[in-house]
Design goal:
2 helices
């Protein structure tokens, strides 16, 4: 081995040193590194589990919120429909009241017009009666022959036409 440039004692010392170093690394260095890597692996697994749980919880919360939003939307639509129906009912009541008032006003106007017509007719009858009395009085004063009566009636009618 000397011909190859290998020193046997030095090689043996190197092999023993290697095994001592390997023993020391296994005894003092590798366990903390392995523990640290295991701890890191455990923390990563816990983080992934926690993230998965948080994702599931967020998904459940999102579903709850969507359901609540849909319920609120449906309730709002019901309120709008109810308000619309109420507004339609109020509109119909107002229109019915307006129709009743218009009918009452029309009825009152017809009654007032009829009363005015009756008053005018009564006044006209009164005036006609007065005029007839005046005409009769003239006829009585003038005499009763037919020619005179026609003349008085024509005079009376011309006077009535002028007034």
């Amino acid at each position: 081995m000397a011909a190859l440039g290998i020193n046997g004692a030095f090689l043996l010392a190197q092999i023993v040193n290697f095994f001592i170093l390997l023993f020391l690394l296994k005894k003092f260095v590798f366990p903390p590194i392995v523990n640290m890597l295991d701890d890191r692996k455990r923390r990563i697994a816990e983080g992934l589990t926690a993230a998965d749980a948080a994702r599931r919880e967020a998904e459940e919360e999102r579903k709850k919120l969507m359901a609540q939003l849909e319920a609120e939307r449906a309730e709002a639509q019901q309120r709008v429909a109810a308000a619309s129906a109420q507004a339609e009912k109020v509109k119909e009541e107002i229109l019915a009241e307006a129709r009743r008032e218009a009918e009452q006003i029309r009825t009152n106007a017809v009654l007032e017009a009829e009363a005015e017509k009756q008053r005018i007719l009564a006044e006209a009858n009164k005036q006609i009666a007065e005029l007839a009395m005046l005409a009769a009085e003239r006829v009585v004063r003038e005499g009763l022959d037919e020619k005179t009566q026609h003349k008085i009636i024509e005079d009376f009618l011309s006077q009535v036409s002028l007034n």
